[in-house]
Design goal:
The chain is of the alpha/beta class and 415 residues long. The protein folds into two domains: 227 residues, ATPase, nucleotide binding domain (Nucleotidyltransferase, domain 5, 2-Layer Sandwich); 168 residues, ATPase, nucleotide binding domain (Nucleotidyltransferase, domain 5), CATH 3.30.420. Helix content is 31%, strand content 22%. The protein has 13 helices and 17 strands. Strands 14-15-13-12-16-17 form a six-stranded mixed sheet, with helices on both faces. A hairpin with a 2-residue loop joins strand 4 and strand 5. Helix 8 packs across helix 13 and helix 11 crosses helix 12. The longest helix is centred in the last third of the chain and has 25 residues. The two termini are 19 Å apart. The chain binds adenosine-5'-diphosphate (ADP). Adenosine-5'-diphosphate binds next to helix 9 and helix 10.
């Protein structure tokens, strides 16, 4: 009937999804679209492609449900950066994508930021800003920095220059002080920085309408989807790589390991990512083989095979070693034993990752939810329970779009 619905939109790497939920979290509609890849001067015009996808997804929502949308939350890929004209919102430069690195800016950034700060990585938003500032000659007076989600939300609410803690973290915003730090504010380009609000704070009302919008990053939205709300609850993503996120009462930052904390209300979402994960499995086995061979594994028995499965040389978390070589030998004759050894070795890396977070001062993990392609492997879940010494289960919801919808709901205080 006239029930209010909450819309979450997740702008990922290759396409975008939406989830429309009610206040109990029940999904009423879902959908996805690949980015259309509009070209301009032989390059993908990402801003135009995202914009078109945003409006296509809104049109994909059945119109009788669209009328009931009370609020919208959008998450984008972290550190995807746009420099726009502060009057018109039009991009002054092509968007700098989440995984693009601007090593040219690193010396400058390292000279102003505290050691091991999150911004001290070539792909940080601050490195992107500094690189643009030092290399582009366009009018800097009317320039403004926005993150992907900020810009997409602007298309809906029309207020230019607003961001949230999660997106602003990699440009140097301090969510504990709730301000940009003095070392950043004293830089000439600090005039480009957007104002920052807590994720899930209403920014404004939809242009021709009365609904609010909110922003965050993709990984935060995926964590929110799992509904792990107590300190000590964690989500391990077993996709192509292994990433962990832990809800902690303390904040941890260490750029050596790529570990940083997002603020979630009065708590911290601490995360790190290893280069190990499912991509290595896929190099060796098909998904069908993974299912068949896994069936024959006895998860209660420890595998003594000690591997370090990596696709290429180099690891950053839980061990920072750019020269670490992949280790996958000795290879036993039995494929079942080989797979068991790999799954067990990845579980040991996961255990080490959680123990590193604890050593760095995070809340001790007490339960792990699992997302990603590896989550459906029940034998692996059992192996991980034994190696981690913790309850492990599959997260019921893992779509970032669902998490974004929960954020839209939370922002309206109707949970
Ligand atoms: P991505 O990070 O690419 O989004 P997904 O979450 O889609 O990854 O997960 C894909 C990964 O899951 C693949 O690398 C694959 O090796 C792994 N995978 C698929 N099926 C299984 C399985 N039964 N057991 C363990 N891993 C699996």
């Amino acid at each position: 009937l006239g029930e209010r619905l909450y819309l979450g939109m997740d702008f990922g790497t290759s396409g975008a999804r939406f989830a429309l939920i009610d206040k109990r979290g029940t999904i009423h509609a879902e959908g996805k679209r690949e980015y259309p890849h509009f070209m301009s001067e032989e390059k993908v015009d990402w801003a135009r492609s995202w914009k078109a996808t945003l409006f296509s997804l809104l049109e994909d929502i059945p119109s009788h449900l669209r009328k009931l949308v009370a609020s919208i939350s959008i998450d984008g890929t972290s550190a995807t950066t746009l420099i726009v004209d502060s009057n018109t919102g039009e991009p002054l430069w092509r968007p700098l994508l989440y995984n693009e690195s601007c090593p040219d800016a690193l010396p400058t950034v390292k000279s102003i930021a505290p050691p091991n700060h999150t911004v001290c990585s070539g792909s940080s938003t601050l490195c992107k800003l500094v690189s643009w500032w030092e290399n582009d000659d366009s009018n800097k007076k009317s320039a403004l920095l926005l993150h992907q989600a900020d810009w997409l939300l602007w298309l809906l609410h029309g207020k230019l220059g607003v961001s949230d803690y999660n997106n602003a973290l990699k440009v140097g915003y301090d969510p504990e002080l709730e301000s940009y730090p003095p070392w950043l504010l004293s830089q000439p380009y600090s005039q480009l920085l957007p104002s920052v609000r807590a994720p899930g704070t209403s920014i404004g009302h939809l242009k021709e309408d009365i609904r609010s919008d909110f922003g965050t990053t993709d990984s935060i939205a995926a964590f929110l989807a799992a509904r792990a709300t107590q300190p000590g609850k964690a989500v391990t993503s077993l996709g192509s790589t292994l990433a962990i996120k832990l809800l902690s009462t303390t904040r941890i930052e260490d750029a050596r390991f790529g570990v940083y904390s997002h603020r979630l209300d009065d708590k911290w979402l601490v995360g790190g990512a290893s280069n190990t994960g499912g991509a290595v499995l896929r190099q060796i086995f098909t998904d069908e083989q993974l299912v068949k061979l896994s069936e024959q594994i006895n998860p209660m028995e420890a595998s003594l095979l000690d591997y370090y499965p990596l696709q290429t040389i180099g690891e950053r978390f839980p061990v920072a070693d750019p020269n670490m070589a992949p280790r996958l030998d000795p290879r036993p004759e039995s494929e079942v034993e080989f797979l068991h050894g790999i799954l067990e070795s990845i579980a040991r890396i996961e255990a080490k990752a959680y123990s590193l977070l604890k050593d760095l001062g995070a809340t001790q993990v007490d339960e792990v939810f699992t997302a990603g392609g590896g989550a459906k492997n029940e034998k692996w879940t059992k192996i991980r329970e034994r190696v981690l010494g913790l309850p492990v289960s599959r997260a019921t919801q893992t779509e970032a779009a669902y998490g974004a919808a929960l954020l839209a709901l939370r922002g309206t205080d109707e949970k």
